[in-house]
Amino acid sequence: MLRLFSLGQFTRAGYIQPAEKLVQSSVLVSMPNERPIVGVARGIRGAIAEQTASFDAALLAVALLVVALGAALMGVQSDTWWQLRTGQVILATGSVPTRDIFSSTVSGAYWPNHEWLALAIFYGLYTIGGLPALLLGCTALVVLTWAGIAWLSEGPGRVRAAAVLLAMPAQSVI
User: Fold this and answer.
1) pLDDT tens across 73-117, in order?
2) What distances in angstroms separate CA 35 from CA 40, 42, 104, 166, one per listed residue?
3) With bands split at pLDDT 50, 70 and 90, how would you rate the model's confidence at 50?
4) Keyword Transmembrane helix on this protein (predicted)?
5) pTM score
6) Which backbone phi and psi does 113 adopt, to 5 degrees?
7) Rounded to 5 degrees, what angle do the CA atoms 31, 34, 37 make?
8) Closest Cα partner for 163 from 50, 68, 60?
9) Where are the domains positioned within the chain?
């Protein structure tokens, strides 16, 4: 808290005593253990920065909520069932299949199974709670990925939120 003090009223201990009346030699100073005058301007700027930061954080949270809704509404895709079956094979045999065992046209052909860990995790989620657990797990993965991208990016939160929302349709293409 700022108080008005007279320049000529110092005690031997060096503390400034409050002036009862305003005189021409008075200045604004800060009390001991309080912010200096320079800090007031910084404090105002800091308060504005905090409000802007909280608005940016809220905007980013809304963007991630939109991402979560988009991911949750994707639902079951045509590849889901063979991915679950492959995950079951991986967990049952303890090895990753390198040959296509489900195709009717190229059965036995070489299959570079680069997504084997995700397939095993998906099947684990499916066995725990069925399709709802699988969709919840995939939604959480998508939201955490986009949150990580937003966290690692630079700039104001509103710019990062806009970038997330503009790039979000790409997840439905993949």
Assistant:
1) 877 777 888 889 999 999 999 999 988 888 888 888 898 889 999
2) 7, 10, 77, 43
3) low
4) yes
5) 0.59
6) -85, 85
7) 80
8) 60
9) 55-173
